[in-house]
Design goal:
It contains eleven helices and 13 strands. By secondary structure, the chain is an alpha/beta fold. Helix 1 packs parallel to helix 2 (about 40-50), helix 1 crosses helix 8 (about 225-235) and helix 9 (about 270-280) crosses helix 11.
């Protein structure tokens, strides 16, 4: 039997793909989203049209920072599982509009936690981010590393979500799992992300902005791998770790039903290599505008996925050659280029 699953941020990039996957396997999905204008609303509406054509998917337009609306939602729906993907995304935007992150990522997440508290769920899964590793330079990034040095407000808000979830797991026994996503890309992606920006600019003959003079390394992770990781972890409610010790606390586990996982391709790629693959798939050369690193950015990311492999039996593996080709095919089709 399928489960009744609440997916917040369903009109977003990951939320769209996850919702499709869940209804295709027989779950009953209620998607919610405020469909804000952080990026192209038409793209979000197009994703929603695809979802609303699926049996088993229903949609409610609301903002998770609306406390009364979220309380009503939980009272009406009584979900068995919640996957919270609604958030104000973006590292650079957090320097321009910090209040958007407080509103959505802190107040909004509190409303979700309260919903799960007052209408008990089997599992709350929520999006964290590789950004939480901040100033860490020990590679690969492990969930067992300390992450107390964020370098953007976005990162700080995601670290806050992990702390808040732990508190609710400890106090109210809510099984919670935080997923640290690493640079997600693929069809129906976000227009503010590098692959989308690069593709659009190259096809229009404009130069692309390449930060840190091209010396970035990113653990680019294809959307299907992200979704597989979300589904597998969502199906395995977090459990307390009986070996956890307060005198030697492990950040990646807890005596409460709380877990953290990285979902990344565990194979960092140089940005210039990424651009070279994109050029080959487009059959066009990029004009490069080399720039210094941006405030809030980190030069490199690399996911240790040992815990994900151990507990969920899965590790992402889609190559950028395959992933970028699929994105370019989608982009040309969607924008009729």
């Amino acid at each position: 039997m399928g489960k009744r699953i609440l997916v917040t941020g369903a009109a977003g990039f990951i939320g769209y793909h996850l919702s499709r996957r869940l209804v295709e396997r027989g779950d009953e999905v209620l998607g919610v989203d405020n469909v804000n204008d952080y990026y192209d609303v038409a793209l979000k509406e197009a994703r929603l049209r695809q979802l609303e054509a699926c049996d088993g998917f229903t949609f409610r337009r609301l903002d998770i920072s609306d406390t009364d609306a979220v309380a009503t939602l939980f009272n009406d729906v009584r979900p068995q599982v919640v996957v919270n993907l609604a958030a104000q995304a973006g590292v650079r935007y957090s320097l321009q509009n910090p209040y958007a992150y407080v509103q959505s990522n802190l107040l909004g997440f509190t409303n979700i936690l309260e919903g799960c508290r007052h209408h008990p769920v089997e599992h709350l899964v929520y999006a964290s981010s590789s950004s939480v590793y901040g100033a860490n330079t020990t590679m690969p990034f492990s969930v067992h590393h300390n992450v107390d040095h964020p370098v953007s407000l976005y990162a700080a808000s995601k670290k806050s979500n992990e702390l808040m979830a732990h508190t609710y797991s400890h106090l109210f026994g809510i099984p919670t799992t935080g997923l640290r996503f690493f640079t997600v890309y693929g069809p129906w992606g976000r227009p503010d992300m590098a692959l989308f920006l690069f593709t659009k600019a190259i096809l229009e003959g404009r130069p692309i902005d390449v930060f840190n003079l091209g010396r970035m390394r990113r653990d680019f992770t294809y959307i299907d791998d992200i979704v597989e990781g979300v589904v597998r972890t969502a199906d395995r409610p977090a459990k307390a770790d009986p070996a956890w010790r307060g005198d030697a606390p492990d950040p990646g586990a807890s005596a409460a039903p709380y877990r953290i996982y990285n979902i990344g391709n565990h194979e960092p790629v140089e940005l210039m290599e990424f651009i070279a693959v994109l050029e080959s798939k487009l059959g066009m050369s990029a004009k490069l505008n080399l720039l210094p690193i941006q405030p809030g950015d980190v030069p490199s990311t690399w996911a240790d996925v040992d815990d994900l492999m151990r507990d969920a039996g899965f590790s992402p593996s889609t190559s950028i050659d395959v992933g970028i080709e699929r994105f370019v095919e989608w982009y040309r089709d969607y924008y009729r280029v």
